[in-house]
Specification:
The complex is a heterodimer of chains A (about 230) and B (about 190). By secondary structure, chain A is mainly α. Chain A has helices at about 15-35, 35-50, 55-65, 70-80, 85-110, 110-130, 135-165, 175-195, 215-230. The chains are: A mainly alpha (about 230), B mainly alpha (about 190).
Chain lengths: ~230, ~190
């Protein structure tokens, strides 16, 4: 799975993800609070400068991700030129480009695993309120694992459609794709259950690695049931 | 529990795949992707709670930095961009769509699914989207509405398609509408 983390290693990759996210939050709030054009222009220049620091490849990479905003920026600028308030148009455009640019920058310089660690930390208080963090972990892993599988199913369904019809399948293919996915979901659920299942959250969430996950009586019996069969 | 988790996770994956597959262009002249179709289906198939959770899970993974939105978009940038309201609106859209389906279980599936998709996937979604756009671009609600008006015909077509797909899923396998299987709890 391709993530949006930049292939160019920067010094910012080593900074703590939580600090980067916190700074991003503060700067974004600051950007939203100000309408002063010089300040916004300064922030924009600073954002471009940050992109330029790691080198040309990184800068081009970042620019490509910001290009998607250009149509909406064009609409805003034309609109404000027409109503003769170009200053406001500039302010809105600069704020938008800076905010999205900085957010992308954090994504580009933070690995998936580091980001995941922040999410786990943030979820710790929620776990006490009843959020099943383990279920969330498994669900995230399942989505990332199943996307290529479903994508492949989609391509196969498209090919078998093409074998039967000269027309393009278009939306009709979504029906067998959904049906196949719901069947997969049932099988995945059985497989999860067979491997001990997703335990309900313990009263005080222990900090353990997946390898040393606490074994409830339930999961132990299912392991024992499996082991003699497996060793033969 | 395991069933709920795998349904939510795999539906999040379907929504992502609907945005990725290039041959799923719906082709009505408007450049639309099938991703918002996936949001409507999440509601009509999974029901309110699980449908909303599937969307929330997808958004979490997008925020972690995977390019799973249509056109390969993703990362934290999309949550502060002009269409951020639509992303948050997806959660509410799936919830409302599913809630309407669950509220009228005895009605015929096709018209109910179309109605639920229009109310959840268009009315509620555009409500969030327009407010978000108005905030980010500092426009009035009316001006923001004008900016997104062009996409409504495509979404109406998608609501119709979501209805047809839900009805044929229910016909092919009655148990495939998950909210019918286990109406209570998660």
């Amino acid at each position: 799975m391709i993530s949006l983390t930049s292939p160019v290693r920067t010094r910012a990759h080593d900074w703590p993800a939580g600090a980067k996210l916190g700074a991003l939050l503060l700067v974004t709030i600051g950007l939203a609070a100000t309408d002063a054009l010089p300040l916004l222009a300064l922030a924009f220049a600073g954002m471009v400068g940050l992109y330029a620091l790691p080198g040309r490849i990184f800068l081009l990479h970042g620019a490509r991700r910001l290009r998607m905003l250009l149509p909406i920026v064009a609409v805003v600028l034309i609109w404000h030129v027409v109503v003769q308030d170009a200053r406001t148009g500039m302010a809105i455009s600069l704020r938008l480009l800076t905010a999205v640019g900085l957010a992308n920058l954090v994504t580009m310089t933070t690995r998936l695993s580091d980001m995941m660690a922040v999410v786990r930390t943030l979820c710790r208080p929620l776990a006490r309120l009843g959020l099943n963090v383990r279920a969330m972990d498994i669900a995230i892993a399942l989505v990332i694992r199943m996307i290529p599988v479903l994508s492949d199913t989609g391509h196969q369904l498209g090919q078998s459609w093409a074998a039967r019809s000269p027309k393009k399948p278009r939306w009709r293919i979504v029906m067998p794709l959904t049906l196949a996915t719901l069947d997969d979901a049932d099988h995945v659920a059985e497989a999860l259950k067979a491997r001990g299942g997703i335990q309900p959250p313990p009263a005080s969430p222990p900090k353990t690695s997946p390898n040393t996950a606490p074994q409830t009586a339930d999961s132990r019996t299912s392991h024992e049931r499996k082991r003699p069969w497996k060793s033969q | 529990m395991e069933k709920s988790v795998s349904h939510v996770a795999l539906f999040a994956a379907i929504i992502a795949v609907l945005g990725l597959l290039p041959n799923l262009q719906l082709g009505f002249g408007v450049p639309i992707t099938a991703q918002s179709l996936g949001i409507m289906l999440a509601g009509t198939v999974l029901g309110a709670k699980r449908g909303a959770l599937a969307v929330l899970l997808l958004l979490l993974i997008v925020a972690l930095g995977l390019p799973l939105l249509a056109g390969g978009r993703g990362g934290l940038g999309v949550f502060v961009g002009p269409t951020a309201g639509f992303l948050w609106g997806w959660v509410a859209a799936a919830f409302v769509t599913g809630w309407i389906m669950e509220r009228f279980p005895a009605q015929p599936v096709l018209p109910m699914a179309i109605l639920a998709s229009v109310v959840g996937g268009i009315l509620v979604l555009y409500g969030f989207g327009i407010v978000g756009m108005a905030l980010v671009l500092k426009k009035t609600l009316l001006e923001a509405t004008m900016l997104v008006l062009a996409f409504i015909p495509g979404d109406l077509a998608k609501a119709g398609i979501a209805g047809l797909l839900t009805a044929s899923l229910a016909r092919a396998r009655p148990g495939s509408l998950i909210w019918r299987r286990a109406p209570r709890g998660l």
